């Protein structure tokens, strides 16, 4: 009987130790994270976790912006901390400082989907004064609005909502930026000195655009357009 109890205690200790030392993988090796876009500024992942499934324990080495696609309810299990119950609405956009490992556990009967955008120059950007005069605020125009969500690491993140036929007034992009489609997008970009350019993106797609141009943006689709911009 004594040997049986010792064996049970040994198994119990081993299981406890195993739970505390869950193997950790790099984010690029985590099966739910798929690299969709990468350059000197960012690395963008499409993330999809099946219903009631979980990611592997994976490390975020960089600060990142995330955009939720569809309503979400997850258990965020950060290494060394108690699980956190998190509910997010479709299109929620947030910022998370890197330097941690976690498991994201999907608690719903539908896939958990988001776009995770690593800021690869975060260390340098943290030391650089922000060039943005405003870190919040909202502009409205007929049929739409543009809202600054936050400025972090020298990057400005905004959300734009545009009714069918509505136009974002003329504005200038002096630096590169990323467009993240929350809804399906059917836009027309009228670039000063160049002319109209089509801009179609499906929900969950990202597009990197250069700076150095002025344009208006028209929703030529039949449904409202909703997207996020990440400006550098």
Structure description:
The structure is a single chain. By secondary structure, the chain is mainly β. It has two domains: 23-124, Jelly Rolls (Sandwich); 129-231, Jelly Rolls (Sandwich), CATH 2.60.120. Helices cover 10% and strands 53% of the residues. The protein contains two helices and 20 strands. It has helices at 2-20, 122-126; strands at 25-26, 33-38, 42-49, 58-60, 64-69, 72-78, 84-88, 93-96, 100-106, 112-119, 137-141, 144-152, 155-162, 167-173, 177-181, 185-191, 195-201, 206-209, 213-219, 225-231. The strands form four sheets. Strands 11-12-13-20-15-18 form a six-stranded antiparallel sheet, with no helix packed on it. The chain has a five-stranded mixed sheet with strand order 1-4-9-6-7, with no helix packed on it. The longest helix has 19 residues, at 2-20. The termini are far apart. The model is unreliable at 1-20 (pLDDT under 50).
């Amino acid at each position: 009987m004594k040997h049986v109890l010792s064996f049970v205690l040994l198994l119990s200790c081993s299981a406890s130790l195993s739970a505390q030392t869950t193997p950790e993988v790099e984010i690029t090796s985590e099966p739910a994270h798929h690299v969709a876009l990468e350059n000197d500024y960012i690395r963008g992942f499409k993330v999809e976790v099946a219903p009631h499934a979980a990611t592997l324990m994976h490390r975020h080495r960089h600060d990142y912006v995330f955009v939720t696609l569809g309503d979400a309810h997850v258990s965020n299990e950060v290494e060394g901390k108690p699980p956190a119950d998190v509910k997010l609405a479709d299109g929620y956009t947030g910022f998370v400082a890197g330097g941690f490992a976690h498991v994201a556990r999907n608690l719903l009967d539908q896939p958990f989907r988001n776009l995770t955008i690593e800021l690869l120059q975060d260390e340098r950007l943290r030391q650089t004064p922000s060039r943005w005069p405003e870190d919040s605020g909202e502009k409205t125009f007929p049929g739409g609005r543009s809202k600054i969500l936050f400025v972090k690491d020298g990057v400005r993140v905004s959300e734009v909502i545009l009714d069918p036929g509505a136009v974002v007034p003329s504005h200038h992009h002096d630096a590169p930026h990323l467009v993240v489609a929350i809804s399906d997008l059917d836009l027309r970009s009228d670039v000063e000195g160049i002319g109209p350019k089509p801009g179609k993106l499906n929900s969950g797609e990202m597009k990197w655009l250069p700076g150095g141009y002025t344009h208006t943006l028209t929703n030529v689709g039949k449904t409202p357009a909703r997207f996020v911009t990440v400006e550098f």
